[in-house]
Design goal:
The structure is a single chain. The protein is mainly beta. It folds into 2 domains: 35 residues, no CATH class; 52 residues, no CATH class. The strands form 4 sheets. A two-stranded antiparallel ribbon has the order 1-2. The mean pLDDT is 76.
């Protein structure tokens, strides 16, 4: 723990781990500067960020314990209807060929 004397009083701070803090203290109570954490690039999610639901398969986006760089978009469930003299057929979450 470090004690830093400022014109407005004493500031106590601690920096631990592999991170760094650079900047300066001012008498108005701010700490301008940058915080630079070490980031493990292996922990970034590199899969798709868009998915359309399917009826016949479970879909998993392997995002557990990963850092995402964008929102995941889940598109609406596909819905199609076909009409003929016998009635209407609805297709939910299935592609119509």
């Amino acid at each position: 723990m470090s004690d830093i004397l400022t014109p407005i009083g004493q500031l106590k701070c601690q920096i631990s781990g592999v991170n760094s803090l650079n900047g300066s203290l001012s008498g108005v109570g701010s700490v301008p500067g940058t915080v630079s954490p070490k980031i493990n690039r292996d922990k970034y999610y590199t899969g798709t960020y868009e998915v359309t639901p399917k009826a016949d398969v479970t879909q998993v986006l392997p995002t557990a314990d990963k850092t995402l760089t964008d929102d995941i978009t889940i598109h609406k469930v596909p819905f199609y209807e076909t009409h003929n003299e016998h009635g209407t057929t609805a297709y939910i979450a299935m592609e119509v060929n």
